[in-house]
Amino acid sequence: MSSGAGLSPHALETLEFPAALDRVAAHAVCPLGAARVRARTPGTDPAIIRAALAQVAELAAALLSDDAIRAEAVPDIGETLELLGVPGSVLEGPQLVAVQLALAAARLVGAELGRLTAAAPRTAALRAVPVSKDIEPRLRASLDPEGELLDGASRELAQARKATRAARQRLVARLETILGALDPMERSGDAGVTVRGGRYVIPVKSTARSKIGGIVHDESATRATVFVEPPEVIELGNALRAAEAEEQREVLRVLRDLTELLRPHTVTIAGAWEMCIAFDDLCARSRYAVLVNGFAAAIGEGPLVIRNGRHPLLEGNEVVVPFDLSLAGDEWTVLISGPNTGGKTVLIKAVGLICLLAQSGIIPPLGPESRLPVFTHVFADIGDHQSIAANLSTFSAHAAALKDILETAGPGSLVLLDEIGGGTDPTEGAALAGAALRALTRQHVVTLATTHLGALKRLAAETVGIVNASLQFDAETLRPTYRLLKGMPGRSYGIAIARRLGIAAAVLAEAERDVPDVERNLDALLATLEERDRDLAVRERDVTTRADELQARTADLETLAASLQEREQALRTEEKTLDTAARERARAYLLEARKTVEQALAQARATVTEATAKEARRIVEQAIEKSGEEGTDKRQGWVNLEELRQRKGAKSPEQPLTTYHSPLTNSKSTRHAPLTSL
Q1: In Å, how far are 455, 456, 508 from 519, measured between CA atoms?
Q2: What is the torsional sign of CA 154, 158, 159, 163?
Q3: What is the mean pLDDT of residues 96-100?
Q4: Signed CA dihedral, 185, 191, 196, 201: sign only
Q5: pTM higher than 0.85
Q6: Helices then strands (H, E): number in the chain?
Q7: What is the chain's Cα-based Rg?
Q8: In Å, what is the CA distance from 79 to each residue of 259, 266, 515, 617, 666?
Q9: Which distant-in-sequence residues (6+ apart) come within 8 Å of 403 by Cβ?
Q10: Which of 77, 437, 595, 621 has its CA 20 to 30 A from that of 60?
């Protein structure tokens, strides 16, 4: 983001803004993306800031469900693109390879952005116009990874290199023959064909120089050996030189052709390269937001409200206590007091860094429902600015910084003052600090100041727009809790800490007697308020614990109720299933009974009359129907055909009829067709 805020390098260094950017840049995949993050500066246009934070929040949400989203490393082709803009220029092989790698990365990034169109439309908007698909394959087929042209870059180049290799082989073979024919006393023991001054030569002893002749191109440090090109190979050497020159001419021609292939697409290539860097920058900021569990704050929509804030340089440590700080519409100055090592300086630095990072398009360690104003100027007077070279004492340095702040700060400014009024007489320091804070408050400058001066703690009660705050300190253990308490000044605990460190009791007693009554009464009042605050905190924890327990019990009961409901439904389903099965079994039994009765009646046909048979059939069917109606008791019904025949006066058959047993059903819906005629 472009800078619009009034920030001096000193203020940025004081708040450790570059170190915070380094934390974010560590998530980039290539140096160009990291450099883009480190180059970010706070902006002052609320709309631009909101858009940048919304884009980061969108991609961060996508990363939570899809961690495979990745940027692609891209080489630096800035100078190459500038050279392409110069007519007639020719790119070297390594430059062309860098362009090819950039195009490959752009192709992958473009595909990734296309995939994110639905889930992250703001991110997908980074997608640039695709470069011609023919360029990347052509470069890949023409160059090796080191930037050397391949033989396949052109047919002429392949032929030229073949001719060069042949000329070199002829020359080396001839030189090896000459060297092998020399007397061992005329050559070095490990002599071999070598190159001097671009010409192939053989090393011989200087005493044999006149015998061999030719051109001497070099000699050893002791001058005992000379490197000679024999006269019989000079023409072969010249032929090699000519072949190499032809090869270089073809190399230059191919490089020129490849350069001209790229030149019309310079703008498109630059856009694709920029897309890769911008996406890497965005991915780094989004991954940082996920890491710190940050939420995008509302920008420029009211007074300062920080929820669950954490110092960006402490985030990731084992224990980080978050803080909440909110200003009402008529509150401008927060005066933070309390003991040393309580975290006051860390707090005001955290507020400054959170605002600067947000205005730079980076989601800082913030909780939801936070609200940040847009500050046009940020001032920070933190630390010891003593300078021997400038003849400035600690107080003089602070006074000079305060002068600059009072002259420059106005509405829309953020001022951070550490130990205001310190370094001089407490009475005069408190008076000067009070006047400065009132002046800043009247100009509606958002100011966070820390102090140990007791007189300043009463300033909030006397001035509208100034509010006290403190960082809680455990009075029993004398250790800071780092919990911010707005509306209540803090105690310094100076004598208590001295007592714990072992200073003599007599000295401490005398010190306590010398404390002014006003300060002693104020300290006692603050101690009472702290005790009440601790009691309230304990009660709040108890209420929270009970609420959690009640919520857990409610959840258990709801789970049990759901389980019972499911069991009831299952029982109903099972009941219906059993009822249907029982009816089917009864029907099967009755059908089997009818079949058996039919068989029995068939056996009695020879002796039973037609009327008797009809009567028997009627009685059987009545018995079956009656059994169906009385089946709820699940008794067994009997039909004695022998007795029925005797009642009708029929003669006994040769084979007595069997007694049939029919199991009954409790279903009243079962019906049977009439038995067949005898």
Answers
A1: 9, 12, 16
A2: positive
A3: 97
A4: positive
A5: no
A6: 22, 16
A7: 49
A8: 14, 12, 70, 112, 96
A9: none
A10: 77
